[in-house]
Design goal:
The chain has about 350 residues and is of the alpha/beta class. The protein is built from twelve helices and eight strands. Strands 2-1-3-4 form a four-stranded parallel β-sheet, sandwiched between helices. The structure holds the ligand C=CC1=C(C)c2cc3[nH]c(cc4nc(cc5[nH]c(cc1n2)c(C)c5CCC(=O)O)C(CCC(=O)O)=C4C)c(C)c3C=C and fe (ii) ion.
């Protein structure tokens, strides 16, 4: 019997330093996130980052926490329930980090008689620190506990025409009542080094833009290319003018060069260039979370306005909207019927 495993990143159990610390430990000790040898990762994460960050992150989580829990988790649960109501095969939700585990979700599916699973990493783009680590962890759990399960992975959907359409339509609805000078597509950042590591050809990605327009198998795993491509497709779908749209990367850690331009630098730059009414979309995320609600909707607004900006709007993620639920249900039904996966 077929079933579906949806996986997102996960959140701490509560917005306290006590719960944020083990969550960050699991997250940052992932070799696909802080990709240095174990001994060095131990020093960086446990010796340096985890000394102060849990307290600081807990304060940020407190600002966005809902009565029902972490927005990322609550939205993902609502999404799962809604998709379940539109399909007739079991759907389970797992998180890569934290207490809602991939193992338990696979067990839930197994208990319902599922032996063929469609794994859906809830990330539109491929990055070793998001999509890849979900796939690797799921395959490790399968090998250890569910060796007879067959698992198929839904590919990154950053250029899927149906996804681009519903994303564009949701942006259009939000922009209808907002007069803007500029629309910023702010994607989660990753270290530049990760782009090179994920390049199977080992020479295609230059990280200067010169490579993105030359067709290459490297694009299948190039986060930077996929962010540029998605921006282009949405821009075209909405007929946004070239000079009113740009892209940037947010949420970096203070180490190494990360993908540029940096979102916080853009917030400072725009008002100086006369761009004082800014709309920001965060299309690396399917669900609103700490990085969109606190960093962009709250902190970003302050940074932009302190730099001289006026009107500011964060456009929500697709979350559990009918359009996104409907599209996911369609992808599941297509796979259920004849193994078709979205391109
Ligand atoms: C969109 C996909 C994501 C990628 C790629 C990604 C890479 C990445 N992230 C960190 C460090 C942190 N990210 C944090 C929060 C966070 N990250 C994503 C998504 C991606 N991260 C989400 C959805 C969230 C929010 C989770 C929530 O509970 O709402 C955090 C924790 C919060 C904080 O302390 O700021 C860290 C740390 C790295 C190092 C990285 C790639 C190397
Ligand atoms: Fe992150």
């Amino acid at each position: 019997m077929k079933g579906v495993l949806l996986v997102n990143l996960g959140s701490p159990d509560s917005p306290t330093a006590k719960d944020v610390k083990p969550y960050l430990d699991e997250f940052l000790m992932d070799e696909r996130v802080i990709d240095v040898p174990l001994w060095l990762r131990n020093i960086i994460v446990r010796g340096i980052i985890l000394r102060n960050r849990p307290k600081k992150s807990a304060e940020a989580y407190k600002k966005i926490w809902w009565e029902e829990g972490s927005p990322l988790v609550v939205i993902s649960e609502r999404f799962t329930e809604k998709v379940q109501s539109k399909t007739d095969i079991p759907i389970a939700l797992g998180m890569r980090y934290g207490s809602i585990t991939i193992k338990n979700a696979l067990q839930e599916l197994k208990n319902k008689g599922v032996d063929e699973v469609l794994l859906v990493p809830l990330y539109p783009h491929y990055a070793m620190s998001s999509f890849e680590t979900v796939v690797v962890k799921t395959m490790e759990e399968k090998a250890a506990y569910f060796p007879d399960m067959k698992i198929t992975t839904l590919p990154a959907f950053y250029k899927n025409p149906d996804y681009i359409k519903i994303l564009s339509e949701s942006i259009q609805r939000e922009l209808k009542d907002f007069e803007y000078d500029h629309v910023l597509f702010s994607y989660h950042g990753i270290p530049e080094r990760h782009i090179k590591k994920s390049d199977p050809t080992k020479f295609h990605c230059k990280i200067d833009g010169s490579c993105c327009s030359t067709n290459s198998v490297a694009h299948n795993t190039c986060y930077r290319h996929q962010c540029f491509k998605m921006t282009e497709l949405v821009k075209k779908e909405l007929a946004l003018s070239e000079d009113k749209v740009s892209l940037s990367f947010q949420s970096r850690l203070p180490n190494d060069p990360w993908l540029k331009p940096y979102t916080d630098f853009e917030f400072e730059r725009f008002p100086k260039e006369g761009k004082k009414k800014l709309a920001v979309i965060t299309p690396a995320f399917v669900a609103d979370c700490l990085e969109t609600l606190e960093e962009i909707a709250m902190e970003g607004k302050s940074q932009f306005q302190e730099a001289g900006g006026n009107d500011y709007k964060h456009i929500p993620c697709l979350n559990d909207s009918d359009e996104w639920v409907g599209l996911m249900a369609k992808w599941i039904k297509d796979w259920q019927a004849d193994e078709t996966l979205p391109a």
